[in-house]
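Intended use. Records like the one below are meant for learning the mapping from a protein sequence to its folded structure. Do not use them to infer anything beyond what is encoded.
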Amino acid sequence: MEWPGGARSALCLSFDNLGVDEASSAARALPGLLKRLGEHDLKATFFAEGVNAELDPGALRGIGAAGHEVAYHAWRHETWGEMTAAARRENLAHGIDAFATLGLETAGLRPPGGQLGQDGVGLLREAGLRYASPAGEGAGVEDGIALLPFQWRHVDATCLLPPLAPVREQMHGSPDPLEPAAFLAYLEGEIGRLEREGGFLSIVLHLPLLDWLGDDRLDALLGRLTESGRNGDLWLAPCAEVAGHVLASPSEFLGKAKLDTTSWAG
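Structure written out for the chain above:
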């Protein structure tokens, strides 16, 4: 499998949870994060809750103006896989319309909880989306929708959430919460493995946890990604761009994504 520019692997840097209320600490963290991404010349995907189109439209416009992708993360971070198909359909339409009023096209969804639910891909296709980023691994195509899964071990919240203790045990041999330095070291090892073996990986950071990660560690991670992108073996791009490549070569990616039923929702 070859990615654009002859790269052997592809990586999406993504940020979840812009917030669902006016007092959100995530929104306050956004200006500094956008500045850091600009300094490292990195483009990311921000999976934002639709309600932010009403609460903080300037933040969403600022993300788009900085060249990053704004994608959908449910209206108020509802646990996607537990909703009825009708509720998911209505939720999608509401969010897509709200983003459109700000001039933002919605290409994809990351379902809170990691699960798409019954006929999840069909609902996305019906809504006009191009990709989904559920829990799983690999990169693939299903019924005309690109699947760009994330693995829980590449998510900062996995270090803390009780239902994901088994994932921590797989990562470090213990179900105990992980410290930020241990998570960063793990990610650096996973980036190195991706460069050697090829494939696809999505790193998922949460804006409310940026203080937990720390500025120095965030800068170290962004610097590592910048270095990896420059060596030519790793293609770094927002999810919508990766989805475009996958959908342009569907036979190459058909059935290559493997979904995971693990969820922070327990």
